[in-house]
Amino acid sequence: MQLDEFISVTLKSIVDGVTNAQQYVKEKKGVINPDTSFNPGPDSGCFHDADGRVGSLIKFSVTLDVSEKDEGKAGVGVFSGILGAGLQGSKSNSSNDLTNIQFTIPVFLPLQDAGSIPGPKNIRKATSHQG
What value does the CA radius of gyration of the chain take, rounded to a whole number of Å? Predict the structure, then answer.
């Protein structure tokens, strides 16, 4: 898989996973990534944009397979860890080098309306009347 395709598929899968989890948790009266104010700490993996929205930092650590074939064409693909698969009967003069890269992509994940979910104030009120 090429690096651009890997990044695209991964980010789409993260967004789809968050959306699917939000639908499930909503049925259970919970919230994932609520649309409420949040002040992320320095080690939270989150950030604020100019409008005050909170985003997430998606960190990647990827091993790339950089190959060069006889024709002088180079290719960069995400290393899958499967060595020798499909190589029987194939002879080619190529060299492969593995290299690690790390990078971070800031994203704003889908927000979920938290208005119908009881927050800490509602829970405190309910428990403070007992007693």
Answer: 23
Q: Which tens digit of pLDDT belongs to each residue from 83-105?
A: 433 333 444 555 678 888 999 99
Q: Name the DSSP class of 127.
A: H
d(CA 93, CA 127): 73
96-100, long-range: CB within 8 Å, 24+ apart, which pairs?
96/65, 96/66, 96/67, 97/65, 97/66, 97/67, 98/63, 98/64, 98/65, 98/66, 99/63, 99/64, 99/66, 100/61, 100/62, 100/63, 100/64
- Give the predicted TM-score (pTM) of the model: 0.65
pLDDT of residue 19: 94
